[in-house]
Design brief:
mainly alpha; 13 helices; globular
Length: 291
């Protein structure tokens, strides 16, 4: 490792950057263009990259000072530097206002998140800070609202991807499935059809709206379209809705502060030496030999 670092350092003009800084300073345009020159040439390569002059400032050069600041902070909100072009998460001054769902729809999404993640996440485990979501379920439900609201722009960007960069994305994923999903998947339609199915099915079974049903009835209805349903081959608006919510609930939870703590996540911190894996290894089975 030291030899490798020395070789990299020898190739840098003035050895002004550490290897970590060199890797962090690589912009997406440089990586996609296959650039592999000396670290001191990174700025020139980025400036000469196709389309570099038309992209917003800051897209190619991550701020090492800001990045280090973020990695070492424990607070959910960071001070916003004056004139910053980065979109920081800001504390709310009032209740959350959903952008993708109506005011009568968002409570249904939140309740479904509670059922999927578990009732123990329903109430906050720790005292919520001012301006932050009151519980983990609220945070995940707000994440789903953001995913649905952002989906049209994601599809548009994916469809406009140049052919060479699209081919690179396919090669990276080793399949066209993920790229095509970005180009075509419409979570808004999935949610609209799923919410309509949930409302109709709740009224058919119990003669009342989903949120008016008893918790056991709500859980029963969700189970009928979940992975535990008797006929796993059956698919309808409810199963598609559940699959989407489950995937985004898991993604939202395990990227939240509470989810990362549950994983005992070791990233976003600096260590003098690697903390290693703290999981207890399972003893390997040994074959018994005949005497």
């Amino acid at each position: 490792m030291d030899d490798e670092k020395n070789k990299i350092d020898e190739g840098k003009p003035g050895a002004a950057l550490t290897r970590r800084e060199w890797l962090l300073s690589l912009g997406s345009a440089v990586v996609l263009a296959g650039y592999s020159g000396a670290p001191g040439e990174a700025a020139a390569a980025q400036a000469a990259a196709p389309g570099a002059g038309t992209l917003p400032p800051g897209l190619f050069f991550p701020s090492l000072d800001h990045l280090t600041h973020v990695l070492t902070r424990e607070d959910p909100f960071l001070p916003i530097p004056p004139g910053a072009e980065t979109e920081y998460v800001r504390p709310r001054s009032g209740p959350f206002v959903p952008q993708a769902f109506g005011r009568d729809e968002f409570p249904v999404i939140r309740r479904l998140v509670e059922i999927i993640l578990g009732e123990d996440l329903k109430n906050p485990e720790e005292t919520s800070l001012p301006g932050a979501p009151p519980s983990c379920c609220d945070e995940v439900a707000e994440w789903i609202d953001l995913v649905v609201r952002s989906a049209p722009a994601v599809r548009t960007a994916a469809r406009k991807l140049p052919a060479d960069l699209r081919a690179l994305a396919v090669a990276y994923d080793r399949s066209e499935k993920r790229v095509r999903e970005l180009e075509t998947f419409d979570p808004d339609q999935v949610c609209r059809e799923g919410l309509a199915w949930l409302s109709d099915e709740s009224r058919r079974r119990w003669g009342k709206n989903f949120l008016d049903a008893a918790p056991a009835e709500q859980a029963e209805l969700v189970a009928s379209v979940s992975d535990t349903r008797p006929d796993k081959a059956a698919a309808n608006a409810g199963t598609r809705f559940y699959d989407f919510l489950k995937a985004e609930s898991i993604r939202g939870f395990y990227t939240s502060r509470r989810g990362l703590k549950e994983l005992d996540y070791k990233g976003n911190s600096f260590y003098a030496e690697s903390p290693g894996c703290t999981l207890t290894p399972h003893p390997q089975a040994t074959e018994s030999k005949p005497e």
